[in-house]
Write a structure and sequence with these properties.
8 helices; about 30% helix; flavonoid biosynthesis; IPNS-like_FE2OG_OXY; oxidoreductase
């Protein structure tokens, strides 16, 4: 079997999947990438800037979606459709570049931003079937343009404009959720302090054995709110029962998928769900999505903004977002590590029990 390539371009043409991408049976896709569901509401934002009935009805729909799923789609959002088209085109052009061009922005070794395969986290037990390019856009003073691709040529200008418009949309949605909690409309934004914004452009190439892997493993986002632009292929999936059942979110032309993250979940004291989701791949089409993460500043406090009488906080004590993020990533990697060890132990035990040369004792006895 050939070694893992530095990009997925060549692997997408193979007729087998490298073992580093193969997930355990309990993690493999249960629903096809194109078996779409309309369970996730599509909400028009036309009139959200006004006062009165239209805004109240839009707010009601958003709140209901956040309480039920933590995820919804928005149309009539005011984002320039030409800008969306340009952003999508440039993203496709970037991933079509030769491997050596993409790897000029390799973000391995702790670099903040750039290109990588699978995940920017070190130590993942199983790799996701995706390529990504990541850049940090807000706060503006923290931008490191050396980590932003310089090809295609218009990348910087278009992504700056896209980032600005998505920041406005995210702030507008946070106002709705603040009002729903009975707070001033800027309460959630203030809780984020100097809000961070990270963009992750995902490319999921055609996969030779999509039933064995995931484009992006099951997770919740750590931040406040995520705004996702996806193409029409399909692959985003959500669950609300701990992964027992999954639905594939119906792609809607020109829409953004919005989901709440852990920070938004904690600030609402659990009222709004942190969307549990994953991405699946397929052997027919490559897929593209652009995720905009609206996150609090690293030193922002993670604690409910309002606790109703008779309720308890779902957060034991106030901590910084930076600490919350570190704990989440560390716990995730540790779970993956322990699962891999358990699987390795099981395989060793099975191999031992099949041996015709050694008496068949239990694995525990051998280790004693």
């Amino acid at each position: 079997m050939a070694p893992i390539a530095t990009t997925l371009t060549s692997l997408a043409e193979e007729n087998y999947l490298h073992k580093k991408f193969i997930r355990d049976e309990d993690e493999r896709p249960k629903v096809a990438y194109n078996k779409f569901s309309d369970d996730i509401p599509v909400i028009s934002l036309d009139g959200i800037e006004k006062t009165g009935g239209d805004r109240a009805e839009i707010c009601r729909k958003i709140v209901a979606a956040c309480e039920e799923w933590g995820i919804f789609q928005v149309v009539d959002h005011g984002i320039d459709l030409k800008l969306i088209g340009d952003m999508t085109r440039l993203a496709r052009e970037f991933f079509a570049l030769p491997a050596e061009e993409k790897l000029r922005f390799d973000m391995s070794g702790g670099k903040k931003g750039g290109f990588t395969v699978s995940s920017h986290l070190q130590g993942e037990a199983v790799q996701d079937w995706r390529e990504i390019v990541t850049y940090f856009s807000y706060p503006i003073k923290a931008r490191d343009y050396s980590r932003w691709p310089d090809k295609p040529e218009d990348w910087r200008a278009v992504t700056e404009s896209y980032s600005e418009q998505l920041m406005k949309l995210g702030s507008s949605l946070l106002e709705v959720l603040s009002e729903a909690m009975g707070l001033e409309k800027d309460a959630l934004s203030k809780a984020c302090l100097d809000m961070d914004q990270k963009l992750v452009v995902n490319f999921y190439p055609k996969c030779p054995q999509p039933d064995l892997t995931l484009g992006l493993k099951r997770h919740t986002d750590p931040g406040t709110i995520t705004i996702l632009l996806q193409d029409q292929v399909g692959g985003l999936q959500a669950t609300r029962d701990g992964g027992k059942t999954w639905i594939t979110v119906q792609p809607v032309e020109g829409a953004f998928v919005v989901n709440l993250g852990d920070h938004g979940h904690y600030l609402s004291n659990g009222r709004f769900k942190n969307a549990d989701h994953q991405a699946v791949v397929n052997s027919n089409y490559s897929r593209l999505s652009i995720a905009t993460f609206q996150n609090p500043a690293p030193d922002a406090t993670v604690y409910p903004l309002k606790i109703k009488e008779g309720e308890k906080s779902i957060v034991e004590e106030p901590i910084t977002f930076s600490e919350m993020y570190k704990r989440k990533m560390s716990n995730d990697l540790e779970r993956s590590r322990l699962k891999k060890l358990a699987n390795d132990k099981k395989l060793k035990e099975e191999d031992f029990n099949k041996s015709k040369f050694i008496p068949c004792k239990s694995f525990e006895e051998i280790q004693a």
